[in-house]
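Why do we care about 3D structure at all? Because function follows from shape, and shape follows, mostly, from sequence. That is the central idea of this module. The next example makes it concrete: a single protein chain, its amino acid sequence, and then its structure expressed as tokens.
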Amino acid sequence: MKKVKRKSYYDKRKLIVFAFVLPAAIYMFLMIIIPIINNIVMGFQNVDLMNFAKGEKKFIGFDMYKKIFQNSTFRIALKNTISYTFWCLVFQFPLGFAMALFFSKKFKLSQFLRGLTVIAWVLPMIAVAGVFKYMFNGDIGIINHLLVNLKIIKEPIKWLAYGDSAMTAIIIANIWKGVPFNMILLSAALTTLPTDVFEAASIDGANTVKRFFYITVPLLKPAIISVLTLGFIYTFKVFDLSYVMTGGGPGSATEMLSTLAYRYSFSEYNFSQGSAVANVLFILLMVVGIFYISLVNKEESNN
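And the structure:
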């Protein structure tokens, strides 16, 4: 009798868990899985505004992928995306790490200042892009005003009118947005480090630098891998920042894979070409995700 009651209890718990999970599963299936599958299928078809309305979707295999890889604009967008992601991570991760170490120390106003820096991460990317677009305005932007007053430049720079300076402006905006994200995750990881290890190292004569490189960094390795991977994914799929600040211009100087896919699909109405670019972006991010999972599994097996 007890076994029957226990089985009935566990069955009810399973039904409750299933009831909570089902809405999220339905949402993911309808809003994420089905669109991804449709996008993958469309990348192997020839779909534009004309035949989309007629329902004619001719299968063309890998012809669309051959076309985009032969397209100089796609190669520029791929190069821009990789370069943008690299430079953002090069600056925002060390800055975030340094701020995490700084705010891990107990001092007056540390909690307040750390909370203040989190505002940058909480703000929507659209709002950040709009603010930085105004700040880098060549005529009335505050960036030029400060640089001229500090005698760093002699005359205002048209930041968003030239390729290199426009890309620099976007990178700076993303670094400002991304540093708090790195800081929060690394700060949380720092709180889990055992203090007795640092005390023993200090007694043995290890200075601050040695304790950092031989204790802190190795113990934070899983967190560092996670932060870098998430930072890469969030940065590599950038859309709103580039779209709002420059629209991918001037020319194709700040064109990213995401903005190119959007332009092909919703400006030129070549849905298959846009789907193919989006699928390339998806594959690259999936490779990074698989690489991250393999690293995590390797770390867990070593431990």
